[in-house]
């Protein structure tokens, strides 16, 4: 099995690659497997996330974009891929509001070109290789729009209603993959996940931003009233779900992946402060909660996301292993134990003022 993992130096992609290279049991890959990580190394892509695997013969890194058709054709010809797992995407809502175009360039045009090269490769494979081939597209629950407090959770049949440029670009990419199946019969799979958290997450996202700001005694900015609700999914559980879908999923199907942990943003921040109060107390004994600061809400801020993941549980036997209580403690401990990784991120020119890391 040769796997092309696009965007593998990002948060979820690097966790997925680590899962397979470190895996055991159903998540183990054999010595003759090859994982090819294609990443353009834009601002959130970080080679340090996988630096310990540079000598692993099962792993190759290639710098490049999924928009580069010639490069993609060369890689397909060289490695004869068995499966594609497409993580490559611009993914931060705030950035999409500020500058939408890169999101549509990567998420829409990039997915279109990757699908086109994959389709041509798949068409020329022999019957056995065609039957084994899979294209798995990793997407988000944000394509479904927003929910009111009493609304049922998103299912795989919830109509798309994206409300941000990021969500709109991901919805378009999902439709491109869907068209590949219905028009050409390509063996595609799609996953739509809820908010991920865990190790190696770029610190513009809520949880790492709060942890790192707290450790620097900087304000903990909370949009609006802090009552926006998200379902939180531990990244390793998500990666296990992706592998399960790749192995067992029905061609052409979509699977929602959720953590079964609906919480408000203010609950998240308070939980982080309480764990930090315990594990890394402030010298004056005060709580990190005193650093909370409510700021102007962002435009079009979706009120609530919630994932109904009963389909993947029922049909494929996957369920999240981590509760929020266990997963968030592991996450905080990881950031406390990897200050070198955090410092390396902080020292780079990644919109420092926005991140609060100036």
Descriptive notes:
Mean pLDDT is 93; it is low at 349-358. The strands form 3 sheets. A 7-stranded parallel beta sheet has the order 3-2-1-4-5-6-10, with helices on both faces. A 3-stranded mixed beta sheet has the order 7-9-11. A two-stranded parallel sheet has the order 8-12. It has a domain at 2-202 and 233-259 and 303-322: NAD(P)-binding Rossmann-like Domain (Rossmann fold, 3-Layer(aba) Sandwich). Helix content is 42%, strand content 16%. Helix 6 links the parallel strand 5 and strand 6 (188-193). It has helices at residues 11-22, 69-79, 93-98, 101-124, 127-132, 165-184, 206-215, 235-248, 265-279, 310-316, 324-337, 339-347, 352-355; strands spanning 2-6, 34-39, 59-63, 83-86, 134-140, 188-193, 195-197, 220-223, 229-234, 254-257, 262-264, 292-295. Helix 1 (11-22) crosses helix 8. The longest helix is centred in the first third of the chain and has 24 residues, at 101-124. The chain has 358 residues and is an alpha/beta fold.
């Amino acid at each position: 099995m040769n796997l092309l993992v696009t965007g593998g130096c990002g948060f979820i992609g690097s966790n997925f690659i680590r899962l397979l290279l470190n895996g055991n049991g159903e998540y183990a890959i054999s010595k003759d497997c090859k994982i090819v990580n294609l990443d353009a190394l834009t601002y959130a892509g970080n080679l340090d996330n996988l630096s310990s695997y540079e000598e692993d013969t099962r792993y190759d890194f290639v710098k490049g974009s999924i928009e580069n058709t010639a490069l993609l054709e060369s890689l397909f010809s060289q490695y004869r891929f068995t499966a594609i797992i497409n993580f490559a995407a611009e993914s931060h809502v705030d950035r999409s509001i500020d500058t939408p175009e890169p999101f549509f360039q990567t998420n829409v045009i990039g997915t279109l070109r990757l699908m086109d090269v994959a389709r041509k490769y798949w068409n020329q494979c022999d019957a056995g290789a065609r039957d084994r081939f899979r294209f798995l597209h990793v997407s988000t629950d944000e394509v479904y729009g927003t929910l009111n407090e009493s609304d049922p959770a998103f299912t795989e049949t919830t109509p798309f209603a994206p409300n941000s440029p990021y969500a709109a670009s991901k919805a378009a990419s999902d439709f491109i993959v869907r068209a590949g199946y219905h028009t050409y019969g390509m063996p595609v799979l799609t996953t739509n996940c809820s908010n991920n958290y865990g190790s190696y997450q770029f610190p513009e996202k809520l949880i790492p931003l709060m942890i790192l700001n707290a450790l620097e005694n900087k304000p903990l900015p909370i949009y609006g009233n802090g009552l926006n609700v998200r379902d939180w999914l531990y990244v390793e559980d998500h990666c296990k779900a992706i592998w399960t879908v790749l192995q067992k999923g029905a061609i052409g199907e979509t699977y929602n992946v959720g953590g079964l942990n609906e919480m408000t943003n203010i609950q998240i921040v308070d939980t982080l402060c309480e764990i930090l109060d315990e594990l890394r107390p402030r010298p004056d004994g005060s709580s990190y909660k005193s650093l909370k600061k409510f700021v102007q809400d962002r435009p079009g801020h979706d009120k609530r996301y919630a994932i109904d993941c009963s389909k993947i549980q029922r049909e494929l036997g996957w369920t999240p292993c981590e509760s929020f209580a266990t997963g968030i403690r592991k996450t905080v401990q990881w950031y406390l134990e990897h200050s070198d990784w955090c410092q390396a991120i902080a020292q780079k020119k990644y919109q420092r003022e926005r991140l609060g890391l100036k």
